[in-house]
Every structure is written in structure tokens, then in C-alpha cells.
Amino acid sequence: MAEADGYTPQVLAHVKDGIGWMIFSNPRRRNAVTYNMWLQIPGIIKQFEQDTSVRVVALRGEGASSFISGADISEFAEKRNTPEQVATYDAAGKAAGAAIAGLLKPTVAVIRTWCVGGGLGTALGCDLRIAAEDTRFAIPAAKLGLGYRYAGVKTLVDVVGPANAAEIFYSAKQYNAQEAQRMGLINEILPVEGFDDAAESYLRTIAQNAPLTMKAVKMAIRGALEHAAPAGLDDIDAAVSACFQSEDYAEGRAAFAQKRKPVFKGR
């Protein structure tokens, strides 16, 4: 999504001291991820996988305003409106998530200020999450009428357990860093002052360890979490699709754009 003045949201990548940095750059929208940004992620991950100098991959948002505030909802009316558009958009997001989850090197989400919706989903795809002490977390899908795919819900359940996952989705409220750590959403809280230095120190500790050991451990952890898809997966998918075809979904988008509280009718 390029804007009139040439500003283009994108995903940036560079390598420093054994750390492969993937930076979500859309600061005008608190680093919300556009469709084109989702498309860039698999290629960057492939480069990091092949680069033997990269020992750990760190995901972060540009600047200090946000990790990722979620998907760029301003695109939804144009790019995620019809069932066909939803399928295409979701395929790009799924491929990006699969690329991050499939990387056999350690991955760390380096989080500041806001980690919301699709941003939290992306962070949960990483092995570890570290956050500044002033960070806020939320999945506001129930305030927008969005459907959440089984894989995303399962990932959250695997990290925080079913009761915490239910509260996060049902309440759609914001949680502070201390609450997030208590639930297991994040591994470590870092100070706002000197955050970048503290984050790099954390990452260097990992980068200095044995790559083959970390690869083997990651493979074992992944194996321990594998479960067969539920028998009712088709019904779950149908329920999610019904969300995107509902009046409530249109109301959620309109309320977000108009900065008002949505009025849902369950249809």
C-alpha cells in the first residue's frame, strides 16, 4: 500500500552480531501489517535460514510506538471484504506465519508499547517474547466481528492455556506487561529506559550458544506440541467464514473507521 507522498509500508531486514532483524515498518499506523508486508515475510525468513551467520532471528516494529498493532484494518474494505478476498488475504498471512514458525533457528519477538491482534498472533509464532514494561497486549477480534482461524487460537492456547485464551478473546481487553507475563504471553519484561541495549544483550546471549543444540531443541519442542487437527475442523472453519460474511463484520469495520463503539446483532 504505497501512499501519495511515496511512503510505502514494508518489512526491513538486516543482520548484526549474529542477530537477524526483521523490522515491521509502517509507523504511521503503529506498524500495522499490510497485505504486501505479509507477502514479504517468507522471503526474508528464507534468507535468514540460509545465512549461517544468523544465530537468532528477532522481530520488532520500527521505532518505539508499537511492535505490530495488528493487520492494517484500513485495507479491509478493499482487500478483505468478499469471501474470495478473505481467502487470498488469509493465505498470505498463513504463509507468513508458517515461515516464521517453520524457521529452525531461535526466534524472539522484541515488543514495545503495543502488541495487538495480528501483532500478538505474530509474536506468538516466535519461540520467545520480550517486552518493554509499558507494553499493552490485546486481541480485539470480538470488538470487530472478526473470525479467528483454528491455528491461531490453538497457538494461543498452547502458550497461555484454555482459560486465559478464552478470557483474552471473550473480553477483548488490554493487558499490561505484568499481566501478560503472569499468563505466559511474554518471557521477560525489560525497562523502557535502555530498552534497545537490554534487548540486544538478551539476543546476544542466545546468539552465542551452540546452533546445532538450539536446532535440535527447537525440533523436539515442536514435536512435543504437535496434535492432530480436531474432528470438527470443518465446522470451525465454517463458523469463522460466517464471521466474515456477517453484518456484524461490516459493523465492526464501520465502527472502527468512525471511532465509535460497535453495535452487534449476531447476524
Automatic annotation (TrEMBL):
Coiled-coil zones: none
Molecular function via GO: enoyl-CoA hydratase activity
Keyword Lyase among UniProt keywords: yes
Entry superkingdom: Bacteria
Record keywords, A-Z: Lyase
EC identifiers of the protein: 4.2.1.17
UniProt entry tagged with the keyword Methyltransferase: no
InterPro entries: ClpP/crotonase-like_dom_sf, Enoyl-CoA_hydra/iso, Enoyl-CoA_hydra_C
SUPFAM superfamilies for the chain: ClpP/crotonase
One record GO biological process: fatty acid beta-oxidation
Family indicated by similarity: Belongs to the enoyl-CoA hydratase/isomerase family.
Name recorded for this polypeptide: Enoyl-CoA hydratase
Upper taxonomic lineage: Bacteria, Pseudomonadati, Pseudomonadota, Alphaproteobacteria, Rhodobacterales
